[in-house]
Design brief:
By secondary structure, this protein is α+β, with helices and mostly antiparallel strands. Helices cover 12% and strands 27% of the residues. The chain is built from 1 helix and 5 strands. The protein has a 3-stranded antiparallel sheet, with no helix packed on it. Strands 4-5 form a two-stranded antiparallel sheet.
Length: 92
């Protein structure tokens, strides 16, 4: 069964720029399991998952991972390397 209630039990989080499983030009590190545990054990469904790109121990950027079909949209003012400068919203 799919439809408007699908988000109650299923969410897909795409990771733009990540190679298969890890690495790539985008973010790739996130606490996916923690988000799942919160949803299953505490009934807190993830609205976004914070992800980062860490190279040689240094965080180069962070981004929100948004539940499909939403995408991360830059606010046009803040630091483009920070997830705080992005909101999850429906694509134009």
């Amino acid at each position: 069964m799919t439809g408007e209630s699908t988000g109650d039990f299923f969410r897909l989080f795409m990771v733009p720029g990540m190679f298969h499983c890890s690495g790539g030009l985008g973010v790739f590190g996130a606490d996916y399991f923690g988000a799942l545990v919160d949803w299953v054990e505490r009934d807190i469904a993830p609205e976004r998952i914070e992800a980062s790109r860490v190279v040689e121990g240094r965080t180069e950027m962070t981004r929100p991972l948004c539940p499909y079909p939403q995408v991360a949209v830059y606010d046009g003012q803040g630091d483009p390397a920070s997830s705080r400068s992005f909101t999850c919203s429906d694509p134009p």
